[in-house]
Write a structure and sequence with these properties.
elongated, binds MU-OXO-diiron, about 80% helix, about 140 residues, 4 helices, Four Helix Bundle (Hemerythrin (Met), subunit A), mainly alpha
């Protein structure tokens, strides 16, 4: 599965969030690359663990901005973040149990890529619009 290439269609209009998304995309692409190059279970788990760490950092930062700006959809947005974090941890478990099978690896990379793009273009872009209306400079 080809990696995600950041372009303006992925911008939420807030630099702080865009920059973190770029990093998240980089980490997601690293997983796709590890899978494509058949780098093995250890390397895949390592890249996945880097992504989990950065995802937690990014979600916390985004939730802090939402809280500080009285974002009305905070709870719904947070639930999506929580769900994704649970899925990421489930993926680690699946890899540990099943190994880096082609099927599992491809399923996971396509899930990660699709989830991230849809989340950014959907609910994060909505957040970006409201923050811009509020005059947030990040
Ligand atoms: Fe950028 Fe809602 O995560």
């Amino acid at each position: 599965m080809p990696g995600i290439e950041w372009d303006e269609s992925l911008s939420v209009g807030i630099d702080l969030i865009d920059n973190q998304h770029k990093m998240l995309i980089e980490k997601t692409n690293a997983i796709s690359e590890a899978v494509e190059m058949k780098r093995g279970l250890e390397k895949i788990l390592q890249t996945l663990s880097f992504m989990i760490e950065y995802t937690e950092f990014h979600f916390s930062a985004e939730e802090k901005v939402m809280m500080e700006n009285d974002y009305p959809m905070l709870e719904d947005h947070k639930k999506l973040h929580e769900y994704f974090k649970t899925r990421l941890n489930q993926m680690v478990q699946d890899f540990e149990e099943e190994g880096a099978t082609v099927e599992l690896s491809e399923d996971i990379t396509s899930y990660l890529t699709n989830w991230l793009v849809n989340h950014i273009k959907g609910i994060d872009t909505e957040l970006g619009k409201i923050l811009q209306e509020k005059g947030f400079k990040g």
